[in-house]
Amino acid sequence: MLSSNIEYYKPVNIKETLELFYYLKGNNKRPIYYAGGTEILTLGRLNLVETDALIDIKDLKECQMFEFNQDYLITGAAISLTDIEEKNLFSLLSKASMEIADRTARNKITLGGNLCGQIFYREAVLPFLLCESQVIIAGYNGVEAFPIEQIFNQTLQLQDGQLLIQLLTEKKYINLPYMNIKKRQQWDTGYPLLTIASIKIDNQLRFAFSGLCPFPFRSKQMEAELNNTNVSIEERISKALQFIPGEVLDDVEGSKEYRLFVLRNTLEKIISEMEVR
After folding, report:
1. Residue 104 burial (CB < 10 Å; 0-12/13-18/19+)?
2. What's this model's pTM, rounded to 2 decimal places?
3. Least buried of 87, 184, 244, 262, by fewest C-beta within 10 Å?
4. How many CB atoms lie within 10 A of CB 185?
């Protein structure tokens, strides 16, 4: 359970934010970066989050950016999912974001909170995986940029105290043909059974998945099989399934067998529609 004596801090820039985190850590505090706070409150009640110091980053200007700059779309980590949806600068990201939780929750949930959270779906990462975005992170070594495939492996691989600031996506990806299909077995805003995002670039399809395994992923081995037009779509899908990079979930949202059934049908739909665009 969250402490009733949580200290609250609101630094004014990235440098102060990092210095504050490491100072608190050095004084045996358990600081957490805070923006929307939905997961901190929810998991705190379940004793899955422990903190006695919140560092509010939601007004840091770098984390609030959502705009085009030269060849990139800059998406700040403290932007809410509702802002992403309403500004609609990147249609695939808007589509992925607007189907997470309900609107009341999306008003609070931030991009960074979704990507870094403990709830494993992290659906907002799918467009960035497909577009090979750059991840901007601040830490001991200053501000650094990493290719997302280098720093996102099931989760965002942040060291203690590192802060996700932004994601940079090249403009060439923004208006590509795409599909984002979310399947649920329960109510409209419940947890997903399966989400698949896809884009078409250079006549090749890319795919990213959430809800299939206990982590979101993009598999280039699966893509190679799914793009092999020398065989039928059914055979392509069967071969691709051999490269799923983890155990397929079997939980209250759906059995392993049902997920694979939905996966096959959804992939067939995406391939059939996207290949003719």
Report:
1. exposed
2. 0.94
3. 87
4. 16
Spatial distance between the Cα atoms of 182 and 126, rounded to a whole number of angstroms = 12
Place of tokens 């250079």: 202
* Buried/exposed 158-173: b ≥16 CB within 10 Å, e otherwise: beebbbbbbbbbeeeb
What residue numbers bound the domain in which 236 lies? 178-274
Tokens of 106: 């999306």
The number of beta carbons lying within 10 Å of the beta carbon of residue 219 is 18
Measured CA to CA in angstroms, residue 168 lies from 53, 66, 134, 200 at distances of 30, 10, 5, 19
Give average pLDDT by consecutive 10-residue segment, the chain, 277 residues. 77 97 95 78 56 92 96 97 97 95 91 92 97 97 97 96 98 98 75 94 98 98 98 98 98 94 98 96
Both tokens of 87, joined, read 């500004």
Q: For position 184, what pLDDT does the model report?
A: 86
Q: What are phi and psi of 254, to 5 degrees?
A: 170, 150
Question: Can you tell me the distance from the alpha carbon of 219 to that of 238, in angstroms, rounded to the nearest whole number?
Answer: 15
Query: Does residue 78 contact residue 153 with C-beta atoms inside 8 Å?
Result: no
In a domain, 237, yes or no: yes
CATH code, domain carrying 33: 3.30.43
What's the confidence (pLDDT) of residue 41? 58
* Cβ atoms 54, 100 nearer than 8 A: no
Residue 1 lies in a domain: no
110 & 168 share domain? yes
Residue 54: the pLDDT is 93
* Alpha-carbon gap, residue 260 to 237, rounded angstroms: 11
pLDDT for residue 192: 86
